[in-house]
Amino acid sequence: MISRSLLRENAYRSIRDAIVDGTFHPGERLNDGELAQWLGVSRTPVREALTRLEESGLVQTKPGRYTMVSPLDVQAARAAQTVTAAMHELAVREAVPTLSADEINVMREANARFAAALQADDVDAAIAADDEFHGVTVTAAANPALRAVLEQFTPVLRRLERLRFSSVSGRGSVALHDQIIELCEARDVEGAAAAARANWMSLDPRTDFGLPSDPT
Q1: Cβ neighbours around 149 below 10 Å, total
Q2: pTM strictly above 0.70
Q3: Counting runs of H as helices and runs of E as strands, what totals does the chain give?
C-alpha cells in the first residue's frame, strides 16, 4: 500500500511538472477534483500539493473562488532567480574542494548532451542535461538546506528556461558551463562560484522570454 507521504509527493511532482512543461498553461484554472481524477488519488494530496505550489509561486489561489497556474511575470522570475543563483554559487563553493575527476567528467558529458539537445531543438533533453550538470555540485555539496531551497524555487525558473532553451539565446549557456568546468578543475573555488552565479543570473526575463516589464 502506498503511504500518504508518497501519494502527496507524487501528486506534488506531477502537478509541478505539468506546470513547468506547459501542460497546464499560465492563467489556467485548476480544479482539485479534476486533478485528483487525473492522478488517481483523493483530493487531500492534491490540495496539499497545491498549497506547496502556491508557496513556490507556481500557483495562485483565491479561497472559495479559484486556483490557477501563476502567470509568468518579471518580478516573480527575478525573485526566484536571485535565490537560485545564490544557492548554486554556494553549492559550487562547497563542492569544488572535494570534486573528483569523475564528477568533473560527469559535468563535461552533461554539457555535451546539453549542447547536442539545444542543437536538435530538444527542450526536454536540454532541461534534463542542464539538471544533471548543476546536480553534480549540488549533490557534492551535501547540504540538505540548500537542496530544499532549490527544490522550492528552481521550478519557477525552469518554466522560463523552456522558453530560452527553445531559442538561440539558450546556446550561450554551453560556454558558461564550460567556464564553470574549467574553474572547478583548476580548484578555483571563488572563480567557479562566481561563474555559477553568473550562469543563473544570465537569464533575462524580459529579453529572453518576452515577459511584460515590471509594474511601475
Answers
A1: 16
A2: yes
A3: 9, 2
